[in-house]
Write a structure and sequence with these properties.
The structure is a homodimer. By secondary structure, chain A is of the alpha+beta class. Chain A folds into four domains: about 110 residues, Immunoglobulins (Immunoglobulin-like); about 270 residues, TIM Barrel, CATH 3.20.20.80; about 70 residues, no CATH class; about 120 residues, Immunoglobulin-like (Sandwich), CATH 2.60.40. Chain A contains 18 helices and 31 strands.
């Protein structure tokens, strides 16, 4: 009947059966650790996990973290919340990769201490229980000694001996048994056979602009001060104050490399180009050079470096376009024909999506026999521009190149330049867009441009905020791009531009506009049903009257200033939608990580009609506001009593940061009306109305 | 500028950059493959994954599966659905573990074929494109030859040559290029450098009773035919027809081992027992033996084997209780004191949850130095009973023993006896209950007993049906147990017992009752606020009048018959809740995997008052019903035209399987009223009303 004689060697027993803590369901965690979760420098990272054990014993859990460049783990105690969910936090103070994991174990000494207390409180005899302590403590002391923590070992030994020797009664012994400092010491030396450790996960820590950025896209060749003139990088330099004054901090230029002549496209993408037609900047490469050269009509590398430096003085970073494709005239075609797919007649296969043909573009054959050399050369393009001072790259159509290429290339560039930021220009199927974000892109274009209704906007942004999407996908919202002039903008007039601007700038911590078409409200499509601009800059040089009286420039300036003033708008983490009883209106708020800042936005999505409705705000919305305000001028006022605060809670001031208007609100349901002919949106700061003891009203 | 001279060896390039297919988000998948998903024998397993690649090329994906005992993979083509979600299915035809994974690759030949078609349809010249084919096909032929598929190689080569040689015009070449059979051949030989393979996941396939079982719990010592007599296993044998007639297929007996004498508990769990008090069956072990012995008053091992055999004749399986704990008199205590925790005075530590003490129970020290020997002995207990013919085990308080013990022990027993079924008796925190299910328990007790409101019932069962819980946690619903006499049953009278019975039997493919207290509606608690039965069988022998006129026996018989007749009720997969506008009512349906069977249940949760409300059924509910019916008697009738079917759709017959009543329903909203004094529930089969051409009404 007994197993004493049985062999335990071939019984398939686990190597160690005494690790009783379970660690599950870590957050953040992307695809079980296959990809890094993203954070930005200075973030307080909250790590959560389900941690539990069998039975009633006490658990101890520690969060371990370290930057990839440092070796010893930093250990942070974790705390249990509801439903076996534990949490620990650490601050990421260095760019690059951070690793983290969790260790947990059943804490025999803590179990002993807590049981002692319970039994004593119930009036039970604890003499025998007390007597178990010295052995447990001595074991901890031995482990401390074994790991060369001589001081810990000495203190723990002394504690064990004093407990053992103690003759001054149960109460004194009990008190000694509860010594928090000594328990803390003992916790540093858990029994190794009881330890459970989670898988090690990785965070990618980027700089703040990966999370919060304000983009302006502009074609350099249309930057000239006079009509019928090809713009230059020097013209761009001249326009920097215009861009900076509006509050943009990223200036994104479509490709600035030489443009191919063979099969060049004409204005409005006509298949024949005439003498003087400039072609598409995405048809990269000509006899003057390829991806590492600058189009001669734009200027020189020296001009470019000066532009980068001048922009930096105005807190603007230049973003370049990375389009891994060639015109038929690109030097690569001559020098490395092995990087391209051949047709049966020996010619190089142009780009196509049958039955569509793009004969001015030769795609690389990324899976060719010489793929290693090709990939290295492609990486060297990005590295070349990094060497010129560029830190931000907008990658053209990354979803038509291998995922493995991006994962490798981005990691390689980032290792050498941790400041590098990559924006994925993929407007394709959702799973592909998410995959690109997972494998390293800092930011991603989104479906925002085509989400116009309140339900679809809400559903989309709730998906983007869901776990784990929020941990790898940073949306960058664009109301327009050179490829996208939406129907909403074509037919909605100024209210449509205003509404989309407010939505992009407040729903997204990162957003961008393609100007001057945006601020000048260009809305003529090439033909009905098309999202292409009439006379698009993609195929011709345009001249823009940036000083036009009806420009949205002032509104953009105002909105970007609000973004700068409000940390709530500089992150996507704190987004929450609110109920409003009119489908044509949308209401949401954003809150900063520390809860100290909160902004409420309401937009009329109908550019044709005034719309009104009743807005419902949750208690938390109003409470959060109460918690964070400080009294600006009246700091000598006596603090309000709870009763007074309760009374005051019914009254609020909704202060519109966009127009300066102030509305008096009462309770949780309030009436909102927005007329598109004036301003179709509110960007509100909720201020609490307070009546002081001296019968003086003010707003916090 | 060119990288031709650069070294590719130390560039951190991926080992293979040409595998372009991505396989993500597999389902079923429990904790990223750490645990097996559960299925039952004969199930059609649907495996889904997000599968995609960059660009526009055609993908091919195959599901690979095999039983653990067989080596070659079975390959099943997968098909793409919406949003890059692919699916493939296989049938599990053997108990034990099955492995599965997915292979996907960009299919160059299929891309070629599909592009050809598109270009040709657009009137483009495809001569050059056609000419690429023979090379692609020849490459496939070479791979076939390399993998010793000579026949495939030969056919493919012939195809390549015939395409090459062909002079009979584009149309004929195009047709040859589209040959489906040859494409199928080529797909068997993908280029290895393009293959992506997912991780390999595991399914645990158990027999049907793991999914669908009907339990009856009974104390053998109360099975005697006369009062004041200790029941025996022979008495249990005599009662088998009683149990079988009600429709139960598992008869679960609390521990049948010798009961300790030291610290024995008296009636109603009093701390002092008198001569003749039988003690708790969970205080296992006396001088007559321990876990592998039978209590002398119950009978002998031969009696037990006869009971097992007799039960099997009535399609009843015996389930035994596994309680890994000892009375102070258990032989283990004497023979293996090293398996128990000692107190400071050398005595063995009894069970406690401070300040509560359970001095009649000695828990094992599962993490003692001799844990390996202890664990092997514990496994040998289960193996002993397996050898006596037991295949089902109800495990007592598994959450107070190490998780690693269960994972190892269950796997070990199951390897030797794949029919073994384990039910986890853990009423503890949710994460622990889920963990036990993940690591191998076939079925689990639930919080069902305490969910009485419609909202909480719905929320709980929707959680249990959510992914991945549904793949590892099989609920077994008990309205009562010897430890649980809920307030609802204490005070709700017969309607409460009926409502809970219907809920358990229809919400759960597995459910059980503790009888005779359930069918005799025992509802007297030991004291106010307690869920313990007055004069509980746990501490004394009871005599039951099973023939009492008010017994629920007939109702139980009817409900279990309905379960047997309806595959929809034999699985938890097809559960769906329906809207009903009265919180006191709950409505849900269950549907069989093949859609052929559907049952609608409505329960009045209020045992005191008649309740009524409007039930809303989704279209799908009614359509599914239409799809599955066959005309029983009128098969010679002409099929209904679409128009007639549309007309008929408004009328239904709701046939109550519980009472036989038939209600005429119209449209999607129907009125339901349930009076607890008659029957507080409907179990309905929806029958479609059809008017035939000969103006004859019948119900399908």
């Amino acid at each position: 009947m007994s197993a004493t004689g049985a062999s335990t060697s071939d019984a398939g027993l686990p190597a160690e059966g005494r690790g009783r803590a379970v660690i599950e369901n870590l957050d953040p965690c992307v695809d079980d650790g296959r990809f890094a979760a993203k954070r930005t420098l200075g973030d307080e990272v909250s790590v959560q996990a389900d941690i539990f054990t069998d039975g009633h014993d006490a658990l101890c859990a520690q969060l371990l973290c370290r930057h990839e460049s440092t070796d010893p783990w930093q250990r942070i105690p974790m705390r249990a919340g509801l439903n076996d969910r534990w949490q620990g936090t650490f601050r990421v103070t260095q760019l690059g990769h951070w690793h983290y994991c969790i260790e947990a174990w059943v804490d025999a000494l803590e179990t002993w201490r807590s049981d002692l207390k319970k039994k004593h409180a119930a009036g039970q005899d604890i003499a025998l229980d007390l007597a178990r302590g010295p052995g447990l403590i001595a074991a901890a002391a031995a482990r401390a000694a074994a790991s060369c923590a001589a001081d810990d070992a000495q203190q723990l030994s002394a504690w064990a001996q004093s407990l053992e020797a103690r003759a001054d009664g149960i109460e004194a012994q009990l008190q000694s048994a509860q010594d928090a400092h000594l328990h803390e010491l003992a916790r540093r030396h858990p029994a190794p056979e009881t330890l459970s450790r989670s898988a090690t996960l990785t965070l990618l820590v980027e700089r703040e602009r990966a999370r919060y950025s304000t983009w302006y896209e502009m074609f350099p060749r249309s930057a000239a001060a006079a009509p019928d003139t090809h713009g230059t990088l020097a013209d761009c330099e001249r326009l920097l104050p215009y861009v900076a004054q509006m509050g943009f901090d990223v200036l994104y230029l479509p490709p600035i490399s030489p443009i191919g002549r063979s099969e060049r496209r004409g204005p409005n993408n006509r298949s024949e180009a005439h003498e003087g037609d400039p072609g598409s900047p995405w048809a990269i490469g000509d006899r003057e050079g390829g991806h590492k050269s600058i189009h001669p009509q734009l200027g020189t590398l020296a001009d470019f470096r000066r532009l980068v430096a001048r922009a930096a003085e105005l807190n603007i970073e230049l973003a370049l376009d990375i389009a891994f494709q060639c015109s038929p005239d690109h030097p690569y075609v001559r020098e490395h024909p092995e990087w391209f797919l051949k047709r049966a007649d020996g010619s190089i296969q142009y780009a196509e999506n049958p039955p569509k043909k793009y004969q001015d573009i030769y795609p690389f054959d990324f899976g060719c026999a010489a793929w290693r050399e090709l990939w290295l050369e492609l990486a060297s393009i990005v590295e070349f521009w990094v060497a010129q001072g560029v830190r931000i790259f907008r990658v053209d159509n990354p979803h038509t190149k291998p995922f493995a290429l991006w994962e490798w290339l981005i990691a390689r560039v980032r290792r050498r330049c941790p400041e590098a930021i990559f924006l994925a220009e993929a407007f394709t199927r959702p799973k592909l867009m998410y995959r690109l974000a997972k494998l390293g892109f800092s930011q991603s274009y989104t479906y925002f441009a085509w989400r116009n209704g309140s339900q679809e906007l809400r559903a989309y942004f709730e998906e983007l905020r869901s776990r784990p999407v929020r941990d790898f996908f940073r949306p960058n919202l664009w109301p327009n791009t050179p490829d996208i002039l939406t129907e909403y903008l074509q037919f909605g007039g100024r209210p449509a531009f205003t509404a989309r601007l407010v939505l992009a700038a407040t729903l997204g911590a990162s957003y961008g506009i393609y100007g001057p078409p945006f601020e000048l409200m260009e809305h003529q499509a090439r033909e009905p049903g098309s999202e292409e601009y009439q006379d698009s800059e993609k195929y011709q040089v345009r001249f823009w009257d940036r000083a036009r009286a009806d420009s949205l420039r002032d509104l953009i300036t105002r909105i970007n200033a609000i973004r700068r003033d409000h940390p709530a708008l500089q992150s996507d983490a704190g987004l929450q939608f609110h109920a409003i009883d009119n489908e044509a209106l949308i209401a949401y708020s954003k809150r900063s990580a520390d809860g100290a800042d909160r902004v409420l936005v309401i937009v009329n999505l109908d550019p044709q009609h005034a719309q009104s409705g009743w807005l419902s705000l949750e208690d938390s919305m109003l409470e959060a506001q109460n918690a964070v305000t400080t009294e600006p001028a009246l700091t000598t006022e006596p603090a309000l009593t709870a009763g007074q605060a309760g009374q005051a809670q019914g009254s609020f001031q909704a202060h519109d940061l966009l127009t300066g208007a102030r509305f008096l609100w009462n309770g949780k349901r309030n009436y909102v009306a927005l007329d598109p002919t004036t301003t179709p949106a509110h960007i509100l700061r909720i201020r609490r109305r307070v009546r002081s003891e001296r019968d003086f009203d003010y707003f916090l």
